[in-house]
Fold this protein.
Amino acid sequence: MQICRSKQSMRDCVAEWRASGQRVALVPTMGALHRGHLALCRHARDWLNARGGGRLVTSVFVNPTQFGPNEDLATYPRDEEGDLRLLRDIGADAAFLPSVQDIYRPGAQTVVEVTGLSRILTGKLRPGHFRGVTTVVTKLFNIIGPDAAAFGEKDYQQLTVIRQMVADLDMPVQIIGVPTVREADGLAMSSRNLRLTPQDRAAAPILCQALNRAEQMIATGATLPATLQELRRHLATEPRAEICSIDIRDADDLSRITTIRQPVVILLTVRFGTVMLIDQRVACP
Ligand code: PAF
């Protein structure tokens, strides 16, 4: 596996592969890799294999511009050695680990923002977050030039925002959405889980349980208000869970709905202590 620590070395590496006509798939991450990230890598590899093979790049970059001033940039988990070991084991062809200074040159003035979708839901709770995500993902696409890139469905709004950006800006990258990977007790895998106290870790599966219940209700014809009420009631049974938001939206474009007639996505944001967890479920009536 090649380790590229600068934009130039990454570009040189991809240029060699391109010269021999190979496809490239990218898995962008912020590191502290877990089985959820490995599933992204596997899906990206499958995408390549279905097209005769190619090269898999995983980027590991804790992107400062997607963190707000009072968020957890300083304490975000980092484990470069562990990340590189996992990436070698899974057979990634290159790891891209640029520095903040290399990615964000002084004096930069340009950002990429999906104006509507970035300002609703999580975008309201975390102003500027998705602008940071779309700007860095655009930069990664420009540096690496992948044919495809994989993103997790767990960050459902992020995936929707990125699909919108790629369509709006005619980016020649196929976006692969990858189903959420869960722990045995249902907790969605996330690097932030490492920061939960043992008590909060034990309480956190309530998100998945609430989603299971809501999905079941929607499948059997429950109304939107009844489902929202049950989600609220269920989450309130766990005193450690501080509800930040509960939403049910159109699964395709995250628009508001008044009745459940088509596939919807249930989106939960719940805080445990200082750790904000998100989870989601697509449900069909
Ligand atoms: O989902 C993430 O880990 C990040 O938001 C991403 C896509 C790597 C951009 O920094």
Residues 28-30, 63, 66, 133, 136-137, 155, 158 surround pantoate (CB under 6 Å).
